[in-house]
């Protein structure tokens, strides 16, 4: 990449200085025309601050233009004016005589037009690889040439952080494709992916015909792959494959990246379509070995073990001493195990000295093979033996899980389940096993076991908090052990970060069910000060507690103070309060709250029918029989419920 970048930058510079000058006489000694060149409509400060020195060629009305002629100025030893001095320096630069440019003392190119000499001087130091001097010169003038010169030198000096900062300060950097590519390349190689998406898109928009277009497409594909956007990555990588010349390393790398994308998508057949090219052709790539390994690994993960064995055997044969061949042999051994070819499995187990992290899994599998070979009476015994003998092997966790899931013995399950939950409380599968075993553990262990289990858990994890919520919900709903819920929650409530409102709600309900009304009401009032997901449920709970206590005064206060905005709940509160008044023969108050409920229920026909029925019964209790009959008949109009209809008929018939 860097050679292409700087080849192009060099060409850009030379082209910028290959300016067609205007004719001022046969030997450029026509002082009058020279004067016109410098004075006609000229503001030197303005011109020399523009992007390109090419502005100079538009400063004369003379129409005769000469072509560059090496021989015309090769013998010019002492320039006599601005133009001759410029051409003299240009000729030296053209001939790569950078030392002479550096030693030259300008006579005419000074002051406001000294920029021209400084550009020649700065780039001469650049091509002589004296980058520090070049940076020093670049600091003595301003404009795009100065910025580009500094950026190139910082890159050549491997001062990449400074180079990136210089590009970011250079407002016009995207106007120069080579600088934009350099910026993309630096961010890519230094894994600064945040800006790369937009930079690549900017490049695609401005420089469609650029010779490095496919390379930037590849970078874009890599960025998207690293972000996990595998399908989007394929869109760009397939463009590289379609556009790039067939014998380039870039196209080989693109085939590998396409294969990796399909690998991550789990589409192993399409992965194979791209990766097969590395075995079927002599395509060049930086990743040929990786591609052949990935091809076999993909089919191992797919569960196509026969195909995986074939591909991985070829890989091990082609790269016998490579580190990846160790992994290939491991997958071959596991493939034979999964195919129940235990003889071949044991052959690969002995084939090489595997590193510990591979050997640990193979040893775990060997215990099962030993059971198949008759060394153990059943698989559970082989896993128990593994746990007892392999104290430091991380696959003890897998052995525990097999025992818990497969044993028919409650005592064995309980013993290994308890040990598993304590020893591996952070393992991925703990959450699933704990969830499945909740009731079993509750019935066969104690409160102290659960206390010990959760004391080792990290409650800043959402999964842990969810597990705790699941525990107290299950025990509350299925076992009705409210004391257990209260004690557990009291121990861990301060640590809870997620699902806290729901956990507190179950805790408060448990307090209420235990008859600890004062504590429950105190917590409810505290929770109701702030709107939360259980605001309405807490109101209902508060109402039910006062109802249990037959505290009509506070029941009424609860109903009158409700401000949650849930019309249906407000209707329910009014109806239930009315029923409470009715039950204690306070019929006038009952009639008032039944009427309020009736308005709030609105279009809910069955609820309206129920309230009308209860209101009719209230009027009847007040000996207002005519009103009771009229209201009961209205209730009939709203309901289809047979039981309610029979109840209404009793009122009418009385």
Count of DSSP strands: 0
Amount of beta strand: under 5%
Number of helices: 39
Mean pLDDT: 84
Helix content: over 70%
Low-confidence stretches: 1-76
CATH topology of the domain at 1-203: Serine Threonine Protein Phosphatase 5, Tetratricopeptide repeat
CATH architecture of the domain at 1-203: Alpha Horseshoe
Separation of the first and last Cα atoms: 100 Å
Supply the CATH class of the domain at 1-203: Mainly Alpha
Structural description of this entry:
The protein has 654 residues and is an all-alpha fold. The chain has a domain at 1-203: Serine Threonine Protein Phosphatase 5, Tetratricopeptide repeat, CATH 1.25.40. It has 39 helices and no strands. The protein has helices at 2-17, 31-39, 44-48, 70-73, 82-94, 98-103, 115-127, 131-138, 144-156, 160-169, 177-189, 196-206, 213-226, 230-243, 249-265, 268-275, 277-280, 288-302, 305-318, 323-338, 342-351, 356-372, 379-389, 396-406, 410-423, 430-436, 438-444, 447-455, 462-479, 482-492, 500-513, 517-527, 535-548, 552-561, 567-583, 587-601, 605-621, 625-638, 642-653. The longest helix has 18 residues, at 462-479. The radius of gyration is 43 Å and the shape is extended. The termini are far apart. Mean pLDDT is 84; it is low at 1-76.
